[in-house]
Amino acid sequence: xxxxxxxxxxxxxxxxxxxxxxxxxxxxxxxxxxxxxxxxxxxxxxxxxxxxxxxxxxxxxxxxxxxxxxxxxxxxxxxxxxxxxxxxxxxxxxxxxxxxxxxxxxxxxxxxxxxxxxxxxxxxxxxxxxxxxxxxxxxxxxxxxxxxxxxxxxxxxxxxxxxxxxxxxxxxxxxxxxxxxxxxxxxxxxxxxxxxxxxxxxxxxxxxxxxxxxxxxxxxxxxxxxxxxxxxxxxxxxxxxxxxxxxxxxxxxxxxxxxxxxxxxxxx
Length: 268
What we know:
This protein is mainly alpha-helical. It is 79% helix and 0% strand. α7 crosses α10. It starts with a helix and ends in an 8-residue tail after the last helix.
């Protein structure tokens, strides 16, 4: 389970960063291409680890036959193949802003097919896709702002100040779709089952980390970004450090999601 969780985490983080940085950052073509390569390799790793787990063989002993069989499975093969194709095209198309954004969004949305939402009714699947896109936008935006401040990009101040409105929308989407996902996954399970199950603890950890990121985002908006815009001494260093901490908390959320996606909410 740990190996699959690591593979899912690498895939979520890489694709999310490609989408979010491409959406909110200056157009870093080489960075987006490099992240797309990492995402493509993470997709290969996820597929190999998942196949090895399904067929109960060591990863090093995985042969061609199980991989071919996994490719033919409706819930796995198409999602893996489409995502791999999207990422390959993205590597080449990363020089163009809007094509790169659309390809990254599609690759990120495809992750919903192989999670809990993949087998759910269409409204829950749509909510799962919206949740993934919002999460990718957030972590990518934070990474893009950190890069802009660290490099002293002229547009960094304006982009940091302008993120307030889309940031509020991202939080609203995450909250609404998170509630939909929780209701759908918890189903008829008793609260005692959810609280006592590992899935419940991971969701609780995710919520705590989410609260932490909200606190940091509020601090950025009300204190650190205005100080940085005014050119106060040390403001850039404080903003960089706080953005780095926010990225760590967001990656912690990705860890919780990657592990929770493999578990039964009721602990069965």
